[in-house]
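Standup notes
- DV: blocked on the single-chain target, sequence here:
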Amino acid sequence: MGIFDVAFLVSAVTIAAPILLAATGELVSEKAGVINVGLEGVMLTGAFTAYWTMIGTGNMFVSFLGGLAGGLLFGVLMSVLAIEAKVDQIVSGIAIGLLGYGITTFLNSDVIKDPKTLAPMQRHGIPGLEHLPVVGQALFNQDVFIYVTAVVVVLVALAMTRTTWGVNLKAVGETPIAADAAGVSVRGLRWAATVFSAGCAGLAGAYLSIGDVGVFRESMTGGRGYLALAAVLFSRWRLGGVGLAVTIFAVTDATQLRLQALGEIPREVWIAAALIVVVVLALRARGRAGIRLTSGDAFIGVVLIALVVTVIAAPKTTLPVPLWLAMPYVLALVALATAGNTRNQAPTALAIPYLRSET
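- DV (later): unblocked, structure below
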């Protein structure tokens, strides 16, 4: 398997879990018509409040509740600004992101005088599944947070597709006037979705500080909130697409961590990159009537040809460490740039305040 061994898969799953949880919450919020571009700041706040609580109590469960509380607090703030005060959601989100960064930076230097390094969460194997070849250790011998994340994603999928709540949620994001006329509380559902999204981001941040890294550092989320936002956009507001986008980002991040220690890029990395490009092309082509090539398709095609040539030539090359660190975010930019016109798939009322008095 080369660098793509069991340890690599475990690393990818660990990286993916907090991004997936934050992206799932954001998907619910955007389905209701509220976008929170300050997700990074919410995750930072959850990471700090969880770490602060852990130092004070030493209890992992209570500390995750602290991270959840930090996220919910910012969710309430976002709801007040975007839903009640009708402030532009992009402006509100930017303000929340900056507020989260500023508050956590200040409190980390002013409140935490004696930082401690915590042990990561313990892993628990699922009997009968943890010994499966390859995927056993990666998927079925993980910590509680990863299991809970999987359960949350499944429950959200069921709720959005099989319940009246899910139908109402989509209606609020698509045609809030019609939903209101049918007796659905647009304001209440948007509040619930926004607070839920922030709570998921707070828990995701908590996992980074007390479940994985074991310490809080300034800007420790490292852009994961933006990756969650990118995953929702790239998925065209579908939960399955969110999972695929997060998987690609996590695999890229895990790959760059492994490649930093190698002298050259192995052939299997170029092959994997080519396969990812093929998947992106297939997803873009799905659902089209006939063959219609766009500029985005042409760009991806050129990238694919270049990767195929590289696979054949297998050049002995490497890249500087800073460039490796930027790889997941470069990939996110490429994904967004080649996603085409996604506005047609976005909820119609996304980022548009609902003014009941105007109906």
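- Follow-up: Residues 186-213 form the longest helix (28 residues).
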